[in-house]
Amino acid sequence: MYIVATTLQADSGLLEREPLVDVLETAYAQARAGHGRLVLVSGEAGGGKSALLRYFCAEHADDARLLWGACDALFTPRPLGAIHEIAQEAGSEFRKLIDSNAIPYQVATALVRDLRTNGPTVLVLEDVHWADEATLDVLKLLLRKIDTLPVLAVVSYRDEAVSPSHPLRIVLGEAATGLNVDRLRLPPLSRAAVAELAEPHGVEPDELYGATSGNPFFVTEVLASGGTEIPATVRDAVLANSGRLSQGARSVLEAVAITPPDAEPWLVEALSGLLDERVDECVASGMLGSSGGTVSFRHELARLAVEESLPPGRKLALHRAALDALVSRHEVNHDLARLAHHAEAAHDEAAVLQYAPAAGAHASSVGAHREAAEQYARALRFAGGLSPDALATLLTRRSRECYLTDQADEAIDALQRAAECYREAGDRLKEGETLVSLSNILWCPGRGDEARQTGLEAVALLEQLPAGRELGLAYTNLSFLCERAADIDAASEWGKRAFSLAEDLGDEAVLCQALIRLGSQEGGDAGRQMLERAAALASQDGREDDVANALFGLAAGALFKRSYDLADVYFGQGLAYCGEHGHALMHLYFLASRAQSELERGRWTKAVESATRILRERAVSTYPRTRALVVLALVRARRGDPDVQPLLDEAQALADPTGELPRIAPVAAARAEVAWLVGDTAAIEEVTVPALELARQTNSARAIGELQTWRMRAGIREEPDEIVPQPYSLQLAEDPVRAAALWAELGCPYEAALALADSDDEPTLRRAHEELTSLDARPAAGIVARRLRDRGARDVPRGPRPSTRENPAQLTSRELEVLGLVAEGLRNADIAKRLHLSPRTVDHHVSAILRKLDVKSRGEAAAVAATLAPQDA
Amino acid sequence: MDTYVIVRRNGWRTPDDRQLAAQRSGEEAERMQEDIDWIRSYVLSERDGTVGTVCIFRASSPEAIRRHAAAADIPVDEIVKVADTVIVRPDPAVIAA
User: How many CB atoms lie within 10 A of CB B55?
Assistant: First the structure.
């Protein structure tokens, strides 16, 4: 329909695009074979992305199912707008699900199911730089499953519209590390191409190229105007063309300009009178396109130009008319985002207050929180005449949406204003409740002191009223804040108050949170039981935040005891739960703890993966970021890689203002270790003092132990504090061998090796050197090697890669891996899948193996493999 | 992306092995265009008869370099950040390995 109409008009569309089409074709062939691929198409506005995609789709209209969705340029896009479009051509099951307020996880699952069962599909998502949050989430989730689906996903966007902090960056970042992604960048047309297009129109090619810089849309517009004068900007070109239309046609154009993304016939009629040949005139001129009765601009740039040129009065009147038409029309008066958009543009306060909050609530319910925040902001712009109570409600909702989309300052601001409103209205209960939420959010970007102050204010206020849930939650809030500041005694106090209040009131919400707090603080088996009880209770009552928090408490508890396998179980549960329920912030918390766990276990590559995922996101809470920065910095420092200091500097800048030990101590310990690794032991004293003092103030035994150990390595002679636990106490008592044994038992190979390195004894130092080398901890291994040489030890191994040296056939460890799978009878394609390599790389490895083993066939190679000693394989 | 020097000493038994590795390295770099850019390498003739390289890459992070090396199955001894490039004379003509 639309596609065919466009290819009939294609002229400049496909010049110089053949190599790009080739990439699409190759990707498509792979997708048909069941290996789904993603193609990212980027370019400037007017660069021809749409034309390319439409051409490609038209070529395959007969051999693939086409699902096409375009993201719209509405200031606050409709949640899942593009997905709704896709649903039109998808299976009925998927359509049904989409119509029922599903959250992104459910949508993605249903989409994957649909794609699996409906044959080869080309899925196009256009202009994702405009996508709402829910659509981006669906895309992200789909991309994780794509490599086993028979789908070619083509996603287009404007590079200049995607700033470093744009949410699309995260999706692109994740996609970039996949093996099945192609990136196409549409370059502007070359001088020669522009000349070729200009020739039949008799336009001066150099001038045309100079004015347009090869932008295909601009070129087309200029040539369509037929005049000899070349306009200076795209806007001028578009307006020149629209200026040549009859006044009647222009009024149709204006009507369509204010109703993105496209206008239904009845809407255009309502705005500009009965549809007739005026529409045809617009279509014939190339400004508008028509598809299935709906009319829209052929290009967003054109629409923008026309919209911007409208005088304010006319714009207002058009939006007014659009709003009236939409409201009276049954099938769209639930399209709240659209109604809110026109209501605002028509300056209709009552309509905005009617539709924007509803649009916000709807967006929130389907996981489009960014859009929800915007809708509430819109309502607030028109809220001058509202009662304090109603205003406070809007502010509270906006605050929650801002919280969920890492806009901490906006969230805090909104809640402060809400509290003021309740104060003004004399509603002290709501005021107190709001102060508790405010306290909670203040903590997230690290404003701990303000958080505590506000929390205490809330308690003081609520204690003057009859006790209820709000007071209980005020208590648990303070318990949380004290816990984060490592003031366990106070935390426990508040927690117990909450607990007994919960029992008095029979309130499960307060009980749940009290159990989570007390369970986290108690630790051990008793703590675990409390947390499990909380998780069960919360799950029963559908309190998702509490389920996530309880699981996190369980994970953190296991991690603290170094029960790494148990912690892994909880990480898995927590990450899955947060993923399924769209809890992005808690998801980061779990990732941060998992990164820490992987670091402690010596699984550095995994630790880097987890940390990097966290660092890609901007989040309202700085705690996960601080942890991730430290983990990444330590892995780099331990491997001897560069780019360590900037990470620690950022971590310190985030941690210090909070005054919280759980953030400050890891940074200090990391700085000490880094200093030791680069031989700057003099710096260790300075770097550890403030954290050590804080650790002593809060009786944080483990932190004291860790910091004192580094100080010992710096040659600082001081008495170990009594409360220092093992294994640190053993190290400080100069019993490196026992300390190392204990570390090894706990599952921390790097700490074990470092403990051995503290020894004075040659054989122990040699062991340390061997272990550090096998961990790829080069700087530490180098320090030990120097110690050995200083003692006059001989034959201290310098080089790495013992695996290649000791291996008789000189196969690398990767080649050995591949050989093992060849011996199992796998074909190259399967080996590639198993090892996450490209098939070509596997082919190379197999050739190398055959050569090194001096055999001619896989069978012979397999035979040789059998003779290699087990430890080589 | 920043520029890094990667040292791979005694990495390969023979020049042919290194050649194959170079091919894999190039292919893997292609698939990671956003994260890694292979600028040039100097092939080292080591004292023990083996072959090594010093490579110059642009990369988004040290981890990207390691990911690339793992995928291409080539070793990484050391990664050092390049602060500045000072060209005194152009490289002499390359003699085919």
Answer: 22
Sort A262 into a burial class: Cβ within 10 Å, 0-12 / 13-18 / 19+.
buried
Distance of CA A367 to the CA centre of its chain: 14
| Residues from A in contact with B at Cβ < 8 Å | 176-177, 179, 183, 605, 608, 612, 636, 639-643, 778, 799-801, 810, 812, 814-815, 837-838, 840-841, 844-845, 847-848
Give tens-digit pLDDT for B35-84: 899 999 999 999 888 999 999 999 999 999 999 998 898 999 999 999 99
For residue A43, the distance in angstroms to the closest alpha carbon of chain B comes to 16
Helices (H), A101-148: 104-116, 133-145
CB < 8 Å to A30, chain B: none
| Tokens encoding A600 | 């402690």
Rounded to two decimals, what is the model's pTM?
0.82
| Helix residue ranges per DSSP H, A542-616 | 544-560, 564-581, 584-600, 604-616
A710 and A669 Cβ atoms separated by less than 8 Å: yes
Q: Can you give the pLDDT at residue A860?
A: 85
Chain B residue with Cα closest to A605: B63
Distance CA(A759)–CA(A755), nearest Å, equals 7
DSSP, res A148: G
Low-confidence ranges of chain A (pLDDT < 50): 1-13, 802-806, 871-873
Rounded to whole angstroms, what are the CA distances from A384 to A344, A353, A446, A482? 14, 11, 32, 39
| B75: chain A residues, CB-CB within 8 Å | 800-801
pLDDT of res. A2: 30
How far does A622 lie from chain B, in Å, by closest CA?
22
CB contact under 8 Å between B2 and A643, yes or no, is: yes
Contact A68, A86 (CB under 8 A): yes
3-state secondary structure A496-533: HHHHHHHHHHCCHHHHHHHHHHHHHHHCHHHHHHHHHH
Q: How far apart (Å, rounded) are the C-alpha atoms in residues A737 and A714?
A: 19
Q: A260 preceded by cis ω (within 30°)? A: no
The residue whose two tokens read 């037929």 is A226
